[in-house]
Amino acid sequence: MYFPALLERFAKVFPEVNGTMGSDHWSGRWDRESLCIRARQGLNVVLISRTLEKLQAIAVEIEVTTGSSVKIIQVDFTKDDIYEYIKEELKGLEIGILVNNVGMLPSFLPSHFLNTPGDIQSLIHCNITSVVKMTQLILKDMESRRRGLILNISSGVALFPWPLYSMYSSSKAFVYTFSKALQAEYKAKGIIIQVLTPYAVSTRMTDYLNTNLITKTADEFVKESLNYVMIGDETCGCLAHEILAGFLSLIPSWAIYSSMFETLLLTHYTNYLKQNSHTS
């Protein structure tokens, strides 16, 4: 399909079942595109998420399109008592590829920490605990087989602290650091652990930002990101985001933490809301 040579390598290197997860629109779309491609290479699929209707719809699409079998596991990753159930459901399956891409953003609009909406503990379970627990469940068998691929979806805002998005950027920074450390530990055992750090992708979670050279549609990002799988332990997933990351790394830390930075963020999103209110 998009990258047949790459996916043929997937099928040769990794065995039957691809375990993945996602609970928001961005994650689900990433699943649908990437898993359809992988399923065409003879890989079966496990989908883990909280919304049964979405799981069933994606499962039917994959099965009809590719002929591969799809197993559904319905759980809510904002809870921390779900992993024994997942473990039981995965019994007997040889997981060759794990995609940890579940995630939640407290608010698309910037806000100070004490004004963060929603349940902070739910965000921690969803963005951090899920990555640790799912990796713990799957990595042991990968280690014994001495092969496997784990893709952890972080964010460009993990690369340095982002004021007004403190909880989200910090949780994604954990995913980034955790992934890099694990790759150092398990690379010699034949396991690839890669972290993706994308910037803007137009989805429900980002309030469907207008697309441009930097802001990608979910489809665009998925197709390009597959080019970078298995070529390194860290990637932004697309060339435009790699360039943006390089530019942002040149900004001194004092500028990022200044009140001017906060003002620019707030002004940008105030203008964004005004523009959207005119078009709705």
Describe the structure.
This protein is an alpha/beta fold and 280 residues long. It has two domains: 4-249, 3-Layer(aba) Sandwich (Rossmann fold); 255-280. Helices cover 49% and strands 14% of the residues. It has helices at 4-13, 25-39, 52-66, 83-89, 120-145, 166-186, 218-225, 239-248, 253-256, 259-279, and strands at 17-21, 44-49, 70-74, 95-100, 148-153, 191-196, 201-202, 216-217, 234-235. Strands 3-2-1-4-5-6-9 form a seven-stranded parallel beta sheet, with helices on both faces. The longest helix is centred in the middle third of the chain and has 26 residues, at 120-145. The chain is globular, with a radius of gyration of 19 Å. Residues 1-31 have low confidence and may be disordered. One of its GO terms (biological process) is steroid biosynthetic process. Its main location: endoplasmic reticulum. Pfam families: adh_short (PF00106).
Give the CATH class of the largest domain. Alpha Beta
Helix content: 40-55%
Q: What is the fourth-level CATH superfamily of the largest domain? A: NAD(P)-binding Rossmann-like Domain
Strand content: 5-15%
| Strand/helix succession | HEHEHEHEHEHEEEHEHHH
Q: What is the first-to-last residue Cα distance?
A: 37 Å
Largest sheet properties: 7 strands, parallel
* Low-pLDDT residue spans: 1-31
From the alpha carbons, calculate the radius of gyration and give it in angstroms.
19 Å
CATH topology category name of the largest domain: Rossmann fold
Specify the overall morphology.
Answer: globular
Query: What is the number of helical segments per DSSP (H or I, 4+ residues)?
Result: 10
Supply the CATH architecture of the largest domain: 3-Layer(aba) Sandwich
Which structural category do the helix and sheet elements fall into? alpha/beta
Enzyme class: oxidoreductase
GO molecular function, one term: estradiol 17-beta-dehydrogenase [NAD(P)+] activity
Family: Belongs to the short-chain dehydrogenases/reductases (SDR) family. 17-beta-HSD 3 subfamily.
InterPro entries: NAD(P)-bd_dom_sf (IPR036291), Sc_DH/Rdtase_CS (IPR020904), SDR_fam (IPR002347), VLCFA-Steroid_DH (IPR051019)
